Amino acid sequence: MKFAIAVYGAPFSHQAPLSALAFARAVLAEGHELLRIFFYHDGVYNGNANAAPPQDEPDIRGMWSEFALESGVEMIVCVASALRRGMLDETEADRYEKSSTTLDPAFTISGLGQLIDAGINADRLVTFGN
Question: What is 2-50+57-128's CATH superfamily?
């Protein structure tokens, strides 16, 4: 079965990112295909390369980044949501003449069409958060 995941919740303020990560791992462990993970609204904060959680809290961004490297699953952050929240890759930082990037390299900025495409091509689109 082909799955796609949408994450709407921010790390450290919502259970959605950790639940989505556990689900993504289970999908692959069961031999299913995971087409894409799409981060939308506050979910884009999961890709914040500048996040520095206390030592006694999980590094959720690091966990997502590690998952992407291990699995090769595409992780997309919505461009509109990302820009509103100051989440910039090199291209967007240059475009808006900002001095630095804030997006972890494991994540890619793209449009909402990627979520629509995932919903069309997956057997199931599972959402986490509100």
Answer: DsrEFH-like (3.40.1260.10)
Whole-angstrom distance, CA of residue 42 vs CA of residue 60: 14
- Reported as a single tens digit per residue, the pLDDT across 31-41 is 999 999 999 99
Is the pTM higher than 0.90? The answer reads yes
Rounded distance, CA 125 to CA 65, Å?
Answer: 21
- Told to judge if 78 belongs to the known catalytic residues of this protein, a careful annotator would answer yes
Active-site residue, selected from the candidate residues 34, 49, 76, 78: 78
Q: Say what percent of the chain tops pLDDT 70.
A: 100
Q: How far is CA 109 from the centre of its chain?
A: 10
| Angle CA 71–73–77, to nearest 5 | 135
CA 69 – CA 1 distance, rounded (Å): 22
Q: How confident is the model at residue 130 (pLDDT cuts 50, 70, 90)?
A: confident
